[in-house]
From TrEMBL, chain A:
This is Plastocyanin. It comes from Shinella fusca. Keywords: Signal. Residues 1-26 form the signal peptide. Residues 12-105 form the EfeO-type cupredoxin-like domain. InterPro entries: Cupredoxin, EfeO_Cupredoxin, ET_Amicyanin, TAT_signal. PROSITE patterns: TAT. Pfam families: Cupredoxin_1 (PF13473).
From TrEMBL, chain B:
Pfam families: DUF4142. The keyword Signal applies. It comes from Shinella fusca. Keywords: Signal. Residues 27-167 form the DUF4142 domain. This is Putative membrane protein.
Length: 109, 173
């Protein structure tokens, strides 16, 4: 059963890589998201509660990571900003100043 | 000939006519001038808004317009310098400038909530118009790949501004 599940997870991960590698996992407790030319890269991340997301803004424009009705992180031009993931952070987020910029966080066990 | 969906009231016909009689395709020096002028116009509108509005959402929007358009125009200036291109004034730039002067005069007469609404509505319309011009005329006409790439970044930025303006407009009800 466990082996089956693992195999299925592996297949899912493989599919994600084939689909363009949009899913990123944390290294050393931090998952990095780069903002370049008004896009979150990767747009979709998987994190565990307690891990840190770090956004690095390579644009000369101020951006945010904003969850509707929830938290907001300001990411000034050329700077980085972080958010510590909580269990209920499986969310879609966007930039308040440029709502066409969108990202997704998935909290995994 | 590409036409623009023109949302600026009085100068609309003038602008459409100008684009219709302009040479089929603007050159890179003309494109640079048009894009730069479009940015300057929105910075001027933002400054007017910041001098008039008391609404925090409108203030935040106008501050964002001023900073973003100044930043992208700085990128444009650095690029034309690097490429040795001199931006060239042209009928489209002049029509844009004329339309925006008229709009600013109109907005200048308004105050309070009436100003906020007119400013934000015009920002929605203006960004929509500029994005239409970028998509259908300026980006396809641009010859230099770096200029084209900067225009594409500009389009994403201004599409974001259009959505931001729509959000602010929805909150002004
Ligand atoms: Cu943004």
């Amino acid at each position: 059963m466990t082996a089956l599940l693992n195999r299925r997870q592996l297949l899912a991960a493989g599919a994600a890589v084939l689909a363009g590698g949009t899913l990123a996992r944390a290294h050393n407790g931090t998952v990095h998201v780069t903002i370049d030319k008004l896009a979150f890269q990767p747009a979709e991340i998987e994190v565990k509660a307690g891990e840190t997301i770090e956004w690095t803004n390579r644009d000369p424009f101020a951006h945010t990571a904003t969850v509707k009705g929830g938290w907001e992180v300001s990411i000034p031009p050329g700077k980085s900003a972080t958010h510590v993931v909580t269990a209920d952070d499986s969310v879609d987020y966007y930039c308040r100043f440029h709502p066409n910029m969108t990202g997704r966080i998935k909290v995994i066990a | 000939m590409k036409t623009l969906i023109c949302a600026l009231s009085a100068a609309c016909l003038a602008l459409a006519a100008t684009l219709a009689v302009a040479a089929d395709k603007p050159t890179d020096p003309q494109i640079a001038h048009i894009a730069y002028s479009a940015g300057v116009i929105d910075v001027e509108a933002a400054k007017l808004a910041l001098s008039k509005t008391k609404n925090p959402d409108v203030t935040a929007f106008a501050q964002s317009m001023q900073k973003d358009h100044e930043a992208v125009n700085d990128m444009a200036l650095a690029l034309v310098k690097k490429l040795g291109v001199t931006p060239e004034d042209n009928p489209t730039s002049r029509a844009l400038a004329k339309a925006s002067e008229e709009k600013r005069a109109e907005l200048g007469k308004l105050d309070g909530a009436a100003f906020d609404k007119a400013y934000i509505d015009n920002e929605v319309a203006y960004h929509r118009e500029v994005n239409g011009a970028l998509e259908t005329l300026l980006i396809p006409s641009a010859q230099n790949p770096e200029l084209k790439s900067l225009l594409e970044t500009g389009l994403k930025l201004f599409q974001g501004h259009e959505q931001h303006a729509e959000h602010v407009a929805a909150g002004l009800k």
